[in-house]
Write a structure and sequence with these properties.
Layout: E1 2-4, E2 7-9, H1 15-25, H2 28-31, H3 36-39, E3 47-53, E4 59-69, E5 74-81, H4 90-105, E6 110-116, H5 120-128, E7 132-143, E8 146-156
Length: 163
């Protein structure tokens, strides 16, 4: 509990607390200032994980659509392929299916991808689907004793290449 000039802050602990907050948050004057995460903290997922299986039913990788902002219709995307399965086109298939799900099922407007500068195959893959390089987070990834840049890519729904 925190006291600030006669204001007491407690953690929301039950449905009664949530209902009290919802009464305030649903007022038109308050609504315009709240993010969708705050408005719907227990109703809308902020991430969706997808599992990719081969035609034989073997798990080959997966994808995540995360940091979802439902009102803005934006999210981040990442895909991965089992190291034993790389080089067989699974990444392309996983990305294609994930983009289809994001833009056609979830009706997202924009996706963002963060790709490490040393992952040249991912850079080529995402660019082949229309992702545009938007920026660089300089030396933001530390691995194996070295700092690497993270390249930020974006794709808008109307730029989406449906393969």
């Amino acid at each position: 509990m925190i006291l600030l000039d006669e204001i007491q802050l407690d953690m929301v602990k039950n449905d009664i607390d949530k209902k009290e907050l919802e009464k305030i948050k649903n007022k038109k004057e308050v609504l315009q200032f709240l993010s969708e995460k705050n408005l719907y903290w227990d109703k809308m997922p902020d991430a969706i994980d997808l599992i990719a299986k081969s035609a034989a039913g073997e798990v080959v990788g997966g994808a995540s659509i995360y940091n979802i902002k439902w009102f803005n219709r934006t999210a981040y995307i990442t895909i991965f392929v089992d190291v034993d399965k790389q080089g067989r086109g699974f990444g392309k298939k996983i990305l294609a299916k994930t983009l289809e799900h994001a833009f056609k099922v979830m009706n997202l407007h924009r996706l963002t991808a963060e790709i490490y500068e040393y992952n040249e195959s991912s850079i080529r893959l995402f660019e082949s689907f229309g992702f545009v390089k938007e920026g660089i987070m300089r030396k933001a990834k530390y691995i194996n004793g070295k700092y690497w840049d993270i390249i930020i890519y974006g794709l808008l729904k109307d730029e989406y290449i449906d393969e």
